Amino acid sequence: MLYKTKGIVFRFVKYRETSIIATVFTEKFGIQSYIVNSIRSKKGKSKIAFFQPLTLLDLVVYYKDSGKIHRISEMKCSHPFQSITTDFKKSTIALFLTEVLNKSIKEEGEHPELFEFLYHSIQVLDHLTVAFENFHLQFLLKLSRYLGFEALSVLQEIVPQSVSLRPYFDEKTILHTLHTQTYGSSIVMSNEQRRVVLHHILDFYEAHIDSFHHLKSVKVLRELLH
User: Fold this and answer.
1) pLDDT digit string (tens) for 122-148?
2) Pairwise CA distance, residues 149 & 170, whole Å
3) What is the three-class DSSP state of 108?
4) Residue 106 to residues 5, 30, 117, 143: CA-CA distances in angstroms?
5) Which pLDDT belongs to residue 167?
6) Mean pLDDT over all residues of the chain?
7) How many other β-carbons are positioned within 10 Å of the β-carbon of residue 68?
8) Rounded to whole angstroms, how far apart are CA atoms 219 and 51?
9) Phi, psi (deg, nearest 5) at residue 45
10) How many helices (H) and strands (E) would you count in the chain?
11) Which residues pair with 2 in a beta bridge?
């Protein structure tokens, strides 16, 4: 049967000579795999941009409960990016978010609150013109609630015991502020403080998600924070 659904592209892999298999987090069905034929041919190459990571799509898809790989009947980009693909800092953050999502979200089935959070967060990142240097930290803290483990409360207990930036850095306050403030809020932190907080949040994710380790994009992100 055909269904309409929104989708967030997580990744794609090449399949045979001209096709791809795309992993898309859909509003209606959760994580799904779609085979897209001939999109890497000369005629179809213009549509490959639809499957760049974090692209937001409006889809009409075929779906069967017994199927593992489905097909797309219609698609269009619901929010063409204005800055994520052209701003180096934003594209680096987006690369990091993509790797985080691919390692942490695996389930099929509807997850409407998680989907809305991700969809909204990606739109906000694209729209922000200032104060997005803490976006990835806020995203990780907020995401943990939707994944079933609340990072904030535990981190507030363990981070002050191991961070050597006090008295210049009130870790409990900064973690609470990152978690509760909206994206784009002005939160004063040094690059060193951001790296320390990121390190502890990632350690927390690794402790709760088996596949969450060796993120390749972290090195690039840390270089960006120098």
Assistant:
1) 999 999 998 899 999 999 999 988 998
2) 23
3) strand
4) 18, 8, 16, 14
5) 43
6) 87
7) 8
8) 24
9) -60, -25
10) 7, 5
11) 62
CA–CA distance, 72 with 69 (Å, rounded to integer)? 10
Tokens of 87: 């701003």
CA angle 46, 49, 51 (to 5 degrees): 125
What are 169's two structure tokens?
């850095």
**In which band, very low, low, confident or very high, does the pLDDT at 180 lie, cut at 50, 70 and 90?**
confident
Sign of the dihedral through C-alpha 153, 155, 161, 167: negative
Give the Cα separation of 119 and 117 in Å (integer).
6
User: 3-class DSSP state for residue 147?
Assistant: coil
Q: Whole-angstrom Cα distance, residue 200 to residue 175?
A: 11
Q: How far apart are CA 190 and CA 169, in angstroms?
A: 9
- Residues 11 and 32: beta-carbon distance below 8 Å: no
Task: Read off the DSSP letter of residue 215.
Answer: -
Instruction: Give the 3-state secondary structure of residue 186.
Output: coil
Taking Cα atoms as reference points, which of 129, 47, 52 lies closest to residue 83?
A: 129
